């Protein structure tokens, strides 16, 4: 049975998009397929919120399936339109485990009756309602009255209220007493701010210069550049969009681009050139050769018309507005009790685990007790972009290593908010001396002296690892610009507990499997294979995967012989001796480990065969090829390598890592740090097992 919830607001500008985004993310953690549906949309253009949710959550649904009728159809025949909405909703619901329905926007239906219209639709669809109440400009008594009035309206139309979300609340506004749960979302200025993409659309513009990634930047202010360049430079503010006439762009634009990239000047969000006049050829040639991240928009409208259009733009959710989306999701997760909502919706967690569900679980585990992660490659743009997302989502506290002024300027140029991140130079005199003495003490048996260590510890990998070692950070993630050896060598020297190995989490369409060791140990002995199996089982359990260990070989059971098979057989027995509580089978071939039909033929009595979740490979050659073959052939998402066997977590990135890869790896590292004590105990942490 499809579960659904209807998000309805009593007036415009209620920020119900934040509630819708938060609900889709919440449901995506619980069920395999989530849909979004808007009963009424505008004519002539696709709904931005539908497309934002489809893009953000990778919904495999066409736009038309997510949209009901138009406002024009509602005006023409409201009863017929309501019937069409129900039919279209049911067609979508048949394809989904859960659906979030987003009510109308107070544009064309008519404000006095529109909430009642949404209430009637919710009753027709049979969906409970999240009642969104706008608190902006209201006293607590007025908010309570608005909640009561809208709740009575829902009841009048036989719609069931699931909960109330009070949005845009002033600081200190508490939840009002009410029969259903009430959650309060504080006013957040960045959610009201338009993005550069919003400005581009509002003035019918086109991107003249700059990167399309810059279209998601938030615009904090508008400024009309009607003065000479010195006068404009004196009045620039952080995040402003500057409107200039195109016939003066030759005199103004190069200076504005230079100011955007220069230390000591505020970083801009965009420049908008009005009037559509072509630039002089030499200036056009100069600008075309400049690499700038600053978006420059050109429009045919004149300066007055453009300024009027842009001043009227309200911030909204679009697929490009990644920062705004991350802020909204964090706001929802911090102020809404998702578990209570799921209980009231009676949605049980599915046994299926999709890649998206695993990603959200990682973020939840990391956020549950925020840890401090150091990122040594603090001047790398991908790291900066990932840091912005991590901070907006509240995944971890962050420290970036590098030159602070350079990092802050670069972040501002990229339109990133890194105010919440610390920045430390690896040449900081006090820390350099402290770390040199610490490193010399740790490596004294290798002849290390304080004098030699002073140079070694300025290397960002050593500096970051020593931050972890001394408790200044809980974990480290590096490798986007450094080799694996450069990243993990300091961890091996300083943080090693025993055998260091790795696992990959392989996220298939419906489950998560764990492969180890595919990155560290080329030719493990039987004893080392047993260590890898036990460590991998512990790591799997920490991330919600019930460990059932398959010790892989080219032979299953007693059907084969030879040194390689005997090594796996011996390793399996060692695991059983050391950890009799673990389910382990070996030697076993991959098909017998994953396919129940093959398992019934080859190992009918085994508790692991056909349902293994942790796969221990006999050597690095096998493991590296196995995970890459599954990744490419099955379209699996590979998360890792995740290192194990260290006192505190350090994880390596591929030098081709995307921003999303970095975010995921930091979340893994933060979650590992959260479970640090459990990782050092022989028993699997009971709270970490899920199925």
Structural features, described:
- This protein is α/β, with parallel strands linked by helices and 691 residues long.
- The strands form 4 sheets. Strands 3-2-4-1-5-6-7 form a 7-stranded parallel sheet, with helices on both faces. It has a 6-stranded mixed sheet with strand order 20-19-21-18-17-22.
- The radius of gyration is 28 Å and the shape is globular.
How are the SSEs ordered, and which strands pair?
Layout: E1 3-9, H1 16-28, E2 34-41, H2 48-56, H3 63-66, E3 67-70, H4 71-76, H5 78-93, E4 98-102, H6 111-125, E5 129-134, H7 140-156, E6 161-169, E7 182-186, H8 189-192, H9 196-202, E8 206-209, E9 221-224, H10 229-235, E10 240-245, H11 249-261, E11 270-274, H12 281-288, E12 296-298, H13 303-311, H14 322-335, H15 338-345, H16 355-368, E13 372-375, H17 381-393, E14 397-401, H18 404-413, E15 422-424, H19 429-442, H20 450-456, H21 460-469, E16 475-478, H22 484-494, E17 496-507, E18 512-516, H23 526-542, E19 548-552, H24 563-578, E20 583-588, H25 590-594, H26 596-602, E21 614-616, H27 620-633, E22 637-646, E23 650-652, H28 659-674, H29 676-679
Parallel strand pairs: 1-4, 1-5, 2-3, 2-4, 5-6, 6-7, 9-10, 10-11, 11-12, 13-14, 13-16, 14-15, 16-23, 18-21, 19-20, 19-21
Antiparallel strand pairs: 8-12, 17-18, 17-22
Helix pairs in contact: 1-14, 6-7, 14-17, 16-28, 17-28, 19-20, 21-22, 23-24
């Amino acid at each position: 049975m499809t579960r659904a919830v209807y998000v309805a607001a009593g007036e415009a500008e209620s920020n119900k998009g934040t509630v819708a985004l938060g609900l889709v993310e919440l449901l995506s953690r619980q069920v395999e397929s989530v849909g979004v549906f808007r009963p009424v949309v505008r004519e002539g253009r696709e709904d931005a919120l539908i497309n934002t949710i489809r893009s953000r959550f990778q919904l495999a649904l066409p736009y038309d399936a997510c949209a009901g009728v138009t406002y024009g159809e509602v005006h023409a025949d409201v009863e017929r339109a309501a019937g069409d909405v129900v039919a279209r909703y049911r067609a979508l619901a048949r394809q989904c485990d859960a659906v979030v329905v987003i009510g109308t926007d107070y544009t064309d239906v008519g404000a006095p009756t529109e909430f009642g219209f949404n209430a009637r639709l919710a009753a027709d669809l049979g969906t409970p309602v999240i009642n969104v109440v706008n608190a902006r400009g209201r006293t607590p008594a007025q908010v309570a009255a608005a909640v009561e009035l809208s709740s009575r309206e829902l009841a009048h139309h036989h719609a069931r209220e699931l909960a109330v979300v009070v949005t845009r609340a002033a600081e200190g506004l508490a939840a009002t007493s009410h029969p259903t749960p009430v959650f309060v979302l504080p006013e957040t200025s960045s959610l009201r701010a338009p993005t550069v993409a919003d400005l581009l659309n509002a003035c019918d513009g086109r991107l003249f210069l700059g990167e399309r990634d810059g279209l998601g930047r938030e615009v904090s202010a508008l400024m009309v550049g009607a003065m000479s360049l010195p006068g404009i430079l004196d009045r620039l503010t952080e995040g402003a969009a500057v409107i200039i006439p195109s016939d003066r762009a030759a005199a103004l634009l190069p200076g504005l681009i230079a100011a955007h990239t220069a230390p000591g000047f505020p970083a801009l969000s965009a420049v908008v050139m009005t009037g559509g006049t072509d630039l002089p050829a030499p200036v056009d040639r100069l600008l075309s050769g400049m690499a700038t991240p600053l978006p420059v928009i050109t429009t045919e409208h004149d300066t007055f018309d453009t300024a009027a259009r842009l001043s009227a733009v309200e911030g909204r959710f679009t697929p490009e507005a990644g920062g705004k989306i991350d802020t909204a999701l964090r706001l929802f997760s911090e102020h809404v009790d998702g578990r209570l909502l799921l209980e009231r919706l009676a949605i049980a967690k599915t046994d299926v685990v999709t890649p998206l569900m695993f990603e959200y679980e990682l973020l939840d585990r990391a956020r549950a007790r925020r840890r401090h992660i150091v990122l040594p490659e603090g001047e790398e743009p991908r790291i900066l972009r990932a840091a912005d997302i991590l901070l907006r989502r509240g995944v971890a506290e962050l420290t970036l290593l590098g030159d602070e002024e350079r990092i802050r300027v670069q972040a501002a140029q990229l339109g990133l908010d890194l105010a919440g991140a610390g920045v430390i130079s690896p040449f900081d005199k006090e820390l350099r001396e402290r770390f040199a003495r610490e490193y010399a003490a740790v490596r004294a048996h290798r002849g290390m002296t304080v004098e030699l260590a002073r140079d070694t510890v300025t290397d960002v990998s050593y500096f970051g690892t020593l931050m972890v070692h001394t408790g200044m950070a809980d974990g480290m993630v590096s490798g986007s610009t450094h080799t694996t050896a450069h990243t993990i060598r300091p961890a091996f020297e300083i943080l090693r507990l025993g055998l260091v190995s790795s696992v990959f989490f392989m996220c298939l369409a419906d489950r998560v499997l764990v492969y180890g060791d595919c990155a560290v140990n080329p030719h493990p002995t039987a004893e080392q294979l047993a260590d890898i199996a036990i460590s991998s089982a512990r790591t799997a359990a920490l991330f919600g995967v019930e460990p059932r260990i398959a010790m892989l070989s080219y032979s299953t059971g007693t059907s084969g012989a030879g040194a390689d098979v005997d090594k796996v057989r011996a390793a399996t027995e060692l695991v059983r001796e050391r950890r009799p509580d673990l389910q382990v089978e070996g030697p076993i071939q991959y098909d017998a480990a994953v396919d129940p039909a093959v398992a019934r033929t080859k190992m009918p009595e085994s508790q692991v065969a056909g349902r293994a979740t942790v796969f221990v490979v006999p050597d690095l050659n096998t493991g590296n090829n196995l995970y890459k073959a599954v990744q490419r052939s099955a379209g699996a998402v590979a998360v890792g390598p995740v290192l194990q066997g260290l006192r505190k977590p350090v994880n390596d990135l591929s030098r081709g890592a995307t921003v999303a890869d970095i975010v995921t790896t930091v979340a893994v590292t933060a979650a590992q740090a959260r479970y640090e004590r459990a990782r050092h105990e022989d028993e699997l942490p009971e709270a970490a097992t899920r199925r």
